[in-house]
TrEMBL record:
One of its GO terms (molecular function) is fatty acyl-CoA hydrolase activity. The keyword Lipid metabolism applies. It comes from Frigoribacterium faeni. PANTHER family: ACYL-COA THIOESTERASE, ACYL-COENZYME A THIOESTERASE 8. Residues 31-114 form the Acyl-CoA thioesterase-like N-terminal HotDog domain. GO terms for biological process: acyl-CoA metabolic process; fatty acid catabolic process. Gene3D superfamilies: Acyl-CoA thioesterase, double hotdog domain (2.40.160.210). This is Acyl-CoA thioesterase 2. Transmembrane segments: none annotated. Belongs to the C/M/P thioester hydrolase family. It comes from the Bacteria. Keywords: Hydrolase, Lipid metabolism.
Protein backbone atom coordinates (compact mmCIF):
# COMPACT_ATOMS: atom_id res chain seq x y z
CA UNK A 1 0.00 0.00 0.00
CA UNK A 2 1.23 3.48 -0.85
CA UNK A 3 1.23 6.36 1.62
CA UNK A 4 -0.64 8.52 -0.88
CA UNK A 5 -4.36 8.15 0.00
CA UNK A 6 -5.60 8.49 -3.58
CA UNK A 7 -3.11 5.93 -4.90
CA UNK A 8 -4.11 3.68 -1.99
CA UNK A 9 -7.73 3.95 -3.10
CA UNK A 10 -6.84 3.10 -6.70
CA UNK A 11 -4.87 0.11 -5.43
CA UNK A 12 -7.78 -1.22 -3.39
CA UNK A 13 -10.09 -0.86 -6.40
CA UNK A 14 -7.73 -2.93 -8.56
CA UNK A 15 -9.21 -6.30 -7.59
CA UNK A 16 -7.46 -9.57 -8.32
CA UNK A 17 -9.44 -12.17 -10.31
CA UNK A 18 -9.80 -15.49 -8.47
CA UNK A 19 -11.53 -17.58 -11.12
CA UNK A 20 -15.05 -18.89 -11.40
CA UNK A 21 -16.57 -21.00 -8.63
CA UNK A 22 -19.94 -22.67 -9.11
CA UNK A 23 -20.79 -20.33 -11.97
CA UNK A 24 -19.92 -17.24 -9.96
CA UNK A 25 -17.12 -14.80 -10.77
CA UNK A 26 -14.75 -14.37 -7.83
CA UNK A 27 -12.35 -11.51 -7.04
CA UNK A 28 -10.23 -10.62 -4.04
CA UNK A 29 -9.15 -7.29 -2.60
CA UNK A 30 -7.48 -5.63 0.35
CA UNK A 31 -8.49 -2.66 2.51
CA UNK A 32 -7.21 0.82 3.16
CA UNK A 33 -6.06 1.56 6.68
CA UNK A 34 -8.68 3.36 8.76
CA UNK A 35 -8.07 4.96 12.18
CA UNK A 36 -11.25 3.46 13.66
CA UNK A 37 -10.08 -0.07 12.81
CA UNK A 38 -13.01 -1.00 10.56
CA UNK A 39 -13.28 -1.25 6.78
CA UNK A 40 -14.76 1.97 5.35
CA UNK A 41 -18.19 1.24 3.91
CA UNK A 42 -17.55 3.35 0.82
CA UNK A 43 -14.51 1.23 0.06
CA UNK A 44 -16.25 -2.14 0.15
CA UNK A 45 -19.18 -0.75 -1.86
CA UNK A 46 -16.87 0.63 -4.53
CA UNK A 47 -14.95 -2.66 -4.66
CA UNK A 48 -18.23 -4.59 -4.99
CA UNK A 49 -19.22 -2.36 -7.89
CA UNK A 50 -15.82 -2.86 -9.56
CA UNK A 51 -16.26 -6.63 -9.22
CA UNK A 52 -19.66 -6.41 -10.92
CA UNK A 53 -18.29 -4.08 -13.62
CA UNK A 54 -15.65 -6.70 -14.47
CA UNK A 55 -18.46 -9.01 -15.63
CA UNK A 56 -20.18 -6.37 -17.81
CA UNK A 57 -19.21 -5.40 -21.33
CA UNK A 58 -18.14 -1.89 -22.29
CA UNK A 59 -21.53 -1.17 -23.83
CA UNK A 60 -23.28 -0.93 -20.44
CA UNK A 61 -22.67 1.26 -17.39
CA UNK A 62 -24.13 1.19 -13.89
CA UNK A 63 -27.26 3.29 -13.36
CA UNK A 64 -28.42 2.08 -9.93
CA UNK A 65 -27.16 0.18 -6.92
CA UNK A 66 -28.57 -0.97 -3.58
CA UNK A 67 -26.29 -2.28 -0.85
CA UNK A 68 -26.77 -3.60 2.69
CA UNK A 69 -23.99 -3.46 5.26
CA UNK A 70 -24.21 -6.76 7.16
CA UNK A 71 -21.18 -6.80 9.46
CA UNK A 72 -18.16 -4.59 10.21
CA UNK A 73 -15.17 -5.48 8.05
CA UNK A 74 -11.75 -6.39 9.47
CA UNK A 75 -8.89 -4.38 7.97
CA UNK A 76 -6.43 -7.25 8.37
CA UNK A 77 -8.42 -9.86 6.42
CA UNK A 78 -8.66 -9.94 2.58
CA UNK A 79 -12.14 -9.50 1.13
CA UNK A 80 -13.63 -11.96 -1.34
CA UNK A 81 -16.15 -10.63 -3.87
CA UNK A 82 -18.52 -13.13 -5.47
CA UNK A 83 -20.59 -11.95 -8.44
CA UNK A 84 -23.81 -13.58 -9.65
CA UNK A 85 -24.73 -12.79 -13.27
CA UNK A 86 -28.44 -12.56 -12.55
CA UNK A 87 -29.69 -11.15 -15.86
CA UNK A 88 -28.41 -10.01 -19.24
CA UNK A 89 -31.06 -8.42 -21.45
CA UNK A 90 -30.90 -6.33 -24.60
CA UNK A 91 -30.61 -3.02 -22.71
CA UNK A 92 -30.20 -3.90 -19.04
CA UNK A 93 -28.05 -6.29 -17.05
CA UNK A 94 -28.21 -7.11 -13.33
CA UNK A 95 -25.45 -8.32 -11.02
CA UNK A 96 -25.41 -9.33 -7.35
CA UNK A 97 -22.13 -9.02 -5.45
CA UNK A 98 -21.48 -10.44 -2.01
CA UNK A 99 -18.40 -9.31 -0.09
CA UNK A 100 -17.12 -11.78 2.50
CA UNK A 101 -14.26 -12.27 4.94
CA UNK A 102 -13.37 -15.80 6.08
CA UNK A 103 -16.59 -17.03 4.47
CA UNK A 104 -18.79 -14.59 6.42
CA UNK A 105 -20.67 -11.93 4.39
CA UNK A 106 -20.06 -8.28 5.29
CA UNK A 107 -21.97 -6.61 2.44
CA UNK A 108 -24.59 -7.63 -0.10
CA UNK A 109 -25.19 -5.50 -3.19
CA UNK A 110 -27.32 -5.61 -6.32
CA UNK A 111 -26.58 -3.32 -9.26
CA UNK A 112 -28.22 -2.64 -12.61
CA UNK A 113 -26.41 -1.66 -15.81
CA UNK A 114 -27.81 -0.12 -19.00
CA UNK A 115 -26.73 0.61 -22.53
CA UNK A 116 -26.67 4.30 -23.53
CA UNK A 117 -30.17 5.33 -24.59
CA UNK A 118 -32.14 8.46 -25.51
CA UNK A 119 -35.23 9.54 -23.59
CA UNK A 120 -36.97 12.24 -21.57
CA UNK A 121 -34.66 14.61 -19.73
CA UNK A 122 -35.27 16.80 -16.67
CA UNK A 123 -33.70 17.37 -13.26
CA UNK A 124 -34.02 19.26 -9.98
CA UNK A 125 -31.88 22.38 -10.27
CA UNK A 126 -28.74 22.88 -8.20
CA UNK A 127 -29.28 25.22 -5.22
CA UNK A 128 -28.27 28.82 -5.84
CA UNK A 129 -26.28 31.13 -3.62
CA UNK A 130 -23.79 28.62 -2.20
CA UNK A 131 -20.13 29.65 -2.02
CA UNK A 132 -17.66 28.31 -4.57
CA UNK A 133 -15.20 25.67 -3.34
CA UNK A 134 -12.33 28.18 -3.51
CA UNK A 135 -14.17 30.28 -0.92
CA UNK A 136 -14.62 27.42 1.58
CA UNK A 137 -11.87 26.03 3.86
CA UNK A 138 -10.80 22.48 3.13
CA UNK A 139 -11.67 19.89 5.76
CA UNK A 140 -8.01 18.86 5.71
CA UNK A 141 -7.06 22.31 7.00
CA UNK A 142 -9.60 22.08 9.82
CA UNK A 143 -8.58 18.55 10.78
CA UNK A 144 -4.82 19.15 10.52
CA UNK A 145 -5.09 21.85 13.18
CA UNK A 146 -6.32 19.34 15.77
CA UNK A 147 -3.86 17.21 17.73
CA UNK A 148 -5.77 13.93 17.59
CA UNK A 149 -4.82 10.71 15.73
CA UNK A 150 -8.22 10.32 14.02
CA UNK A 151 -8.24 13.97 12.94
CA UNK A 152 -4.73 13.65 11.49
CA UNK A 153 -5.75 10.50 9.58
CA UNK A 154 -8.91 12.04 8.17
CA UNK A 155 -6.92 15.10 7.07
CA UNK A 156 -5.22 13.00 4.34
CA UNK A 157 -8.15 11.31 2.66
CA UNK A 158 -8.23 10.71 -1.12
CA UNK A 159 -10.87 13.43 -1.54
CA UNK A 160 -10.70 17.13 -0.82
CA UNK A 161 -13.96 17.95 0.97
CA UNK A 162 -15.27 21.40 1.88
CA UNK A 163 -18.37 21.75 4.05
CA UNK A 164 -21.03 24.41 3.62
CA UNK A 165 -21.55 25.95 6.09
CA UNK A 166 -18.88 24.14 8.19
CA UNK A 167 -17.87 20.61 9.30
CA UNK A 168 -19.53 18.81 12.20
CA UNK A 169 -16.43 17.00 13.45
CA UNK A 170 -15.92 18.98 16.66
CA UNK A 171 -18.88 21.36 16.98
CA UNK A 172 -22.11 22.33 15.28
CA UNK A 173 -22.02 25.93 14.13
CA UNK A 174 -25.13 27.88 13.21
CA UNK A 175 -28.74 26.70 13.12
CA UNK A 176 -29.76 23.13 13.95
CA UNK A 177 -30.94 22.24 10.46
CA UNK A 178 -31.17 18.86 8.73
CA UNK A 179 -29.30 19.87 5.59
CA UNK A 180 -25.83 20.81 4.39
CA UNK A 181 -23.68 20.78 1.26
CA UNK A 182 -20.17 19.49 0.62
CA UNK A 183 -17.85 20.32 -2.27
CA UNK A 184 -15.64 17.35 -3.13
CA UNK A 185 -13.10 16.19 -5.68
CA UNK A 186 -10.23 13.72 -5.84
CA UNK A 187 -6.93 15.13 -4.62
CA UNK A 188 -5.24 14.46 -8.00
CA UNK A 189 -6.26 13.63 -11.58
CA UNK A 190 -7.62 10.13 -12.21
CA UNK A 191 -7.29 7.98 -15.35
CA UNK A 192 -9.80 8.47 -18.18
CA UNK A 193 -11.87 5.48 -17.13
CA UNK A 194 -15.59 6.23 -16.76
CA UNK A 195 -16.24 3.09 -14.69
CA UNK A 196 -13.45 4.05 -12.30
CA UNK A 197 -14.96 7.52 -11.85
CA UNK A 198 -18.38 5.97 -11.10
CA UNK A 199 -16.85 3.65 -8.50
CA UNK A 200 -14.86 6.49 -6.94
CA UNK A 201 -18.02 8.61 -6.72
CA UNK A 202 -19.77 5.75 -4.92
CA UNK A 203 -16.82 5.61 -2.51
CA UNK A 204 -17.01 9.34 -1.77
CA UNK A 205 -20.80 9.34 -1.43
CA UNK A 206 -20.48 7.43 1.87
CA UNK A 207 -18.34 10.05 3.64
CA UNK A 208 -20.70 12.74 4.90
CA UNK A 209 -24.35 11.90 4.23
CA UNK A 210 -25.38 10.97 7.79
CA UNK A 211 -23.90 14.24 9.09
CA UNK A 212 -27.21 15.93 8.26
CA UNK A 213 -28.70 14.06 11.21
CA UNK A 214 -25.93 15.15 13.59
CA UNK A 215 -26.36 18.74 12.46
CA UNK A 216 -30.13 18.68 13.03
CA UNK A 217 -29.67 17.53 16.64
CA UNK A 218 -26.52 19.50 17.47
CA UNK A 219 -24.37 16.40 17.97
CA UNK A 220 -20.71 16.68 16.88
CA UNK A 221 -19.02 13.53 15.63
CA UNK A 222 -16.66 13.50 18.63
CA UNK A 223 -19.56 13.29 21.12
CA UNK A 224 -18.67 10.69 23.79
CA UNK A 225 -20.65 7.48 23.45
CA UNK A 226 -22.05 8.29 19.99
CA UNK A 227 -22.46 5.05 18.01
CA UNK A 228 -23.08 5.16 14.28
CA UNK A 229 -23.22 2.46 11.62
CA UNK A 230 -24.45 2.58 8.03
CA UNK A 231 -27.26 0.09 7.43
CA UNK A 232 -27.87 0.44 3.71
CA UNK A 233 -26.93 2.65 0.78
CA UNK A 234 -28.57 3.29 -2.58
CA UNK A 235 -27.25 5.31 -5.51
CA UNK A 236 -28.52 6.29 -8.94
CA UNK A 237 -26.12 7.57 -11.62
CA UNK A 238 -27.85 10.03 -13.95
CA UNK A 239 -25.13 11.68 -16.04
CA UNK A 240 -21.38 11.06 -16.48
CA UNK A 241 -18.88 13.21 -14.60
CA UNK A 242 -15.28 13.22 -13.44
CA UNK A 243 -14.62 12.96 -9.72
CA UNK A 244 -11.30 14.80 -10.10
CA UNK A 245 -13.32 17.96 -10.85
CA UNK A 246 -15.39 19.80 -8.24
CA UNK A 247 -18.78 18.26 -7.46
CA UNK A 248 -21.41 19.64 -5.08
CA UNK A 249 -23.03 17.08 -2.76
CA UNK A 250 -26.33 18.54 -1.47
CA UNK A 251 -27.61 16.59 1.54
CA UNK A 252 -30.68 16.47 3.80
CA UNK A 253 -32.28 14.22 6.39
CA UNK A 254 -36.07 13.91 6.15
CA UNK A 255 -36.46 11.63 9.17
CA UNK A 256 -34.88 10.09 12.26
CA UNK A 257 -36.68 7.68 14.57
CA UNK A 258 -36.21 4.36 16.36
CA UNK A 259 -32.43 4.68 16.56
CA UNK A 260 -32.20 5.12 12.79
CA UNK A 261 -31.76 8.17 10.57
CA UNK A 262 -32.43 8.56 6.84
CA UNK A 263 -30.37 10.89 4.67
CA UNK A 264 -30.74 11.84 1.00
CA UNK A 265 -28.24 13.44 -1.34
CA UNK A 266 -27.93 14.96 -4.81
CA UNK A 267 -24.58 15.38 -6.55
CA UNK A 268 -24.07 18.15 -9.13
CA UNK A 269 -21.16 19.23 -11.28
CA UNK A 270 -20.15 22.90 -11.34
CA UNK A 271 -22.25 23.58 -14.44
CA UNK A 272 -25.36 22.49 -12.51
CA UNK A 273 -25.96 19.08 -14.08
CA UNK A 274 -27.43 16.52 -11.68
CA UNK A 275 -24.90 13.68 -11.71
CA UNK A 276 -26.28 11.26 -9.12
CA UNK A 277 -28.81 10.77 -6.33
CA UNK A 278 -28.06 8.96 -3.07
CA UNK A 279 -29.98 7.57 -0.09
CA UNK A 280 -28.63 6.05 3.11
CA UNK A 281 -30.06 4.90 6.42
CA UNK A 282 -27.85 4.58 9.46
CA UNK A 283 -28.07 3.38 13.04
CA UNK A 284 -27.44 6.33 15.33
CA UNK A 285 -27.40 5.79 19.08
CA UNK A 286 -26.86 8.73 21.38
CA UNK A 287 -26.07 8.09 25.07
CA UNK A 288 -28.82 9.19 27.39
CA UNK A 289 -27.74 12.10 29.47
Amino acid sequence: MTDDPLQSLLSTLDLAPAGNVGGQDVFTGTSQWEPMGRVFGGQVMAQSLVAAQRTIGDERSVHSLHAYFLRPGDLSIPITFTVDRIHDGRSFATRRTQASQDGVPILSMIASFQTTDDGLDHQVDMPRGLPDPDDVPSDSEVLSAVDHPVARAWAVRPFDMRHVPSPVYFEIEGARVAHQAVWLRATAPLPDDADLHRAALLYASDYTLLETIYRRHGIPMISPGLKVASLDHAMWWHRPARVDEWLLYVQESPNATGGRGLALGRIYDRSGRLIASVAQEGMIRVPRG
